Amino acid sequence: MKTGTGSTQVARAVWTVGRHPTHVLRLPSQGPPRLNVLIIPGNPGVAEYYEPFMHSLHQGLRGRACITCVSQLGMDGQGLTSGVFSLSDQIQHKSDLLRQHFSQEGQPPLALLAHSIGAYMAIKAAAGAADARVRAVVAMYPFLEHDPACPRQRSLAWLSRRWRWVGRLVAPLQLLPHPWLSAVVRVQSGMQEEHALAATRLVLRPDSVRNALFLASTEFAELEGSLPWDDVRRLPSFTAYLAEGDMWCPAWQQQLLEKRLGRTQLRRIPGQTHAFCSYSDQSRDLASSIVADLNGLMEGAADPATMLAAGETKLYVTIPYVKANIDSS
Predict the structure, then answer these.
(1) Helix, strand, coil distribution of the chain in percent, nearest 5
(2) What is the pTM for the complete model shown?
(3) What number of CA atoms fall less than 13 Å from residue 147's CA on the CB side?
(4) Pairing verdict, β 134-140 and 238-242
(5) Residue 125: CB partners within 8 Å, gap ≥ 6?
(6) At what angle do helices 151-160 and 206-222 cross, to 10 degrees?
(7) What is the pairing mode between strands 110-115 and 134-140?
(8) How would you list the strands of the sheet with 134-140, edge to edge?
(9) CB 3.0-4.6 Å disulfide test: which of 153, 210, 234, 298 passes with 127?
(10) Which residues pair with 14 in a beta bridge?
């Protein structure tokens, strides 16, 4: 199924990743792709939140890249999987995704754009990937370490441990007609944009709620301690986008990131929030900034059309990259 208002529409598909059916959205390139871009959501991990962001990236890259977004396991809104999935399960899922769908010979280089806890998953999956096609990891408003001093994080940690009960409590919401459910979401969250309301309706399914909260419970348990510096060191390139007042990456963590990475690997865009994907204007502005870096990746990649015209039967891509510069002190 395809949706969209432009000449290029978002295609919806179900891929097999490991042993799990996986919901993906895709905007294909116009011609042989110069770059693969994989978007890994945060939590709740419904790919539909990122449709405006995908379109902005695709337009900014002038159709030369294939843009893919994958839903987190258990949060596809279709009931494709059963059970609940931990942070470790989700990381393994992303590792399997890279190996099975983005590591074939002849594929273009790959950039991972990952939001919130998805940034942690991307770092872990890319650092452990044997294939060298991952050329860049971009962390968009990352959640990399639990902050027990944050009252809202403490409250959510308490709620997440009651994931079974909360999943049962939201079940009656599915009986409401979509316009009524959208009205409830508008009042409770302040969301206005249709793509965000549609994605939130998928989140409010009992299986999605259980998975979102169970995943959160394992996030809070496993993200105690220091940031994943050793894994970041193994990445070919790492950039983080940070937002002022972000409870998931508070000021002290941002200062630590700046000390370890340096300002050149950090980006800040005025007016951005952690929930950028719920807003078309924030999605557009973030995509515009990221496109500048991704264009640099494509400039170093071989042109697939040129190689095919020359009679090459296999495409090999080599591009320059910058190692993450981390102060070990």
Answers:
(1) 45, 15, 40
(2) 0.86
(3) 17
(4) parallel
(5) 91, 94, 95, 97, 98, 112
(6) 120
(7) parallel
(8) 2-3, 10-17, 20-27, 65-70, 35-40, 110-115, 134-140, 238-242, 266-268
(9) 234
(10) 23
Nearest partner of 136 among 128, 146, 126, 149, judged by Cα: 126
Q: Which two tokens stand for residue 289?
A: 């900034």
Name the residue with tokens 């979102």: 212
181-224 pLDDT, tens digit per residue, is 555 555 455 666 778 777 777 777 889 989 999 999 999 999 98
Please give the Cα distance from 107 to 153 (Å, whole number). Answer: 40
Distance CA 133, CA 99 (A): 10
114 phi-psi bin (left φ>0, alpha ψ -120 to 50, beta other) = beta
Instruction: Show the tokens assigned to 290.
Output: 């990221």
Give the torsion sign (CA, 263, 69, 16, 33): negative
Q: How far apart are CA 224 and CA 325, in angstroms?
A: 24
Write out pLDDT tens, residues 58-97: 999 999 999 999 999 999 988 999 999 999 999 999 999 9
With beta carbons less than 8 A apart as the criterion, state whether 186 and 192 touch.
Answer: yes
Burial 268-299 (b: 16+ CB within 10 A, else e): eeeebebbbbbbbebbbbbbebbbeebbbbbe
Is the N-terminal amide bond of 44 cis, ω within 30° of 0? Answer: yes
